[in-house]
C-alpha cells in the first residue's frame, strides 16, 4: 500500500509528461547531438550524419535505422535531433508507456487493508 501511495506522489511531481529518467535520457541526447548534420528528404524522413556514421530517421513511422527507437519506445539521439530540428515536441514521439497518464493508471487502484491472522487459543 505504501509503495502505491509513494509512486502516485512521485508521478505528481513530474514537470513534464514523462518521468525524470526519460528527461535525463533526452538531456543526454542533446549533449550527444552537437556534431550531427541533418539532411531532410522533404517529407517525414531524413538522414542524420556524423563523420562516417549515418542513420535514416522516419518520424511518421517512428523508425530509426539504429533500431533503438523501435526497441525502447524512446526516441534515439538521431530521432531526437530530427525532432528538435523541425521544432517538434518529444511527447508526440514518445511511446505511451512512458507518459504520465499511463503511469498514473498503473497506480490508480489502492490496496485495501485487511485484518491479520487470528490468534488460536
Task: Describe the structure in your own words.
Residues 55-87 form the SWIM-type domain. The chain has 121 residues and is α+β, with helices and mostly antiparallel strands. It has one domain. 37% of the residues lie in helices and 15% in strands. The protein has helices at residues 2-12, 20-32, 68-72, 77-85, 100-106, and strands at residues 37-40, 45-50, 53-58, 63-64. It has a 4-stranded antiparallel sheet. A hairpin with a 4-residue loop joins strand 3 and strand 4 (63-64). The protein starts with a helix and ends in a 15-residue tail after the last helix. The model has no long low-confidence stretch (mean pLDDT 87).
What's the tally of helices? 5
Q: Share of helix among residues?
A: 25-40%
Overall mean pLDDT score? 87
Number of domains: 1
**Could you tell me how far the N terminus lies from the C terminus, measured between alpha carbons in angstroms?**
30 Å
String of helices and strands: HHEEEEHHH
Residues in β-strands, percent:
5-15%
Q: How does the overall form come out from the CA principal axes?
A: elongated
Q: Largest beta sheet: what is the strand line-up?
A: 1-2-3-4
C-alpha Rg, in Å?
20 Å
Structural class: alpha+beta
**Uncertain parts:** none
Question: Largest sheet at a glance?
Answer: 4 strands, antiparallel
Q: What's the total number of strands? A: 4
Keywords: Metal-binding, Zinc, Zinc-finger
Protein name: SWIM-type domain-containing protein
Organism: Hibiscus sabdariffa
Domain SWIM-type: 55-87
Amino acid at each position: 500500500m505504501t509503495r502505491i501511495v509513494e509512486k502516485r506522489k512521485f508521478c505528481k511531481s513530474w514537470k513534464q509528461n514523462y518521468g525524470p529518467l526519460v528527461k535525463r535520457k533526452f538531456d543526454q541526447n542533446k549533449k550527444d547531438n552537437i556534431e550531427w548534420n541533418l539532411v531532410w528528404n522533404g517529407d517525414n524522413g531524413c538522414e542524420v550524419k556524423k563523420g562516417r556514421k549515418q542513420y535514416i530517421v522516419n518520424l511518421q513511422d517512428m523508425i530509426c535505422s539504429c533500431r533503438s527507437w523501435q526497441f525502447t519506445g524512446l526516441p534515439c539521439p538521431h530521432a531526437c535531433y530530427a525532432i528538435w530540428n523541425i521544432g517538434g515536441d518529444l511527447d508526440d514521439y514518445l511511446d505511451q508507456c512512458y507518459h504520465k497518464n499511463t503511469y498514473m493508471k498503473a497506480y490508480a487502484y489502492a490496496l485495501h487493508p485487511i485484518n491479520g491472522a487470528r490468534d488460536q487459543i
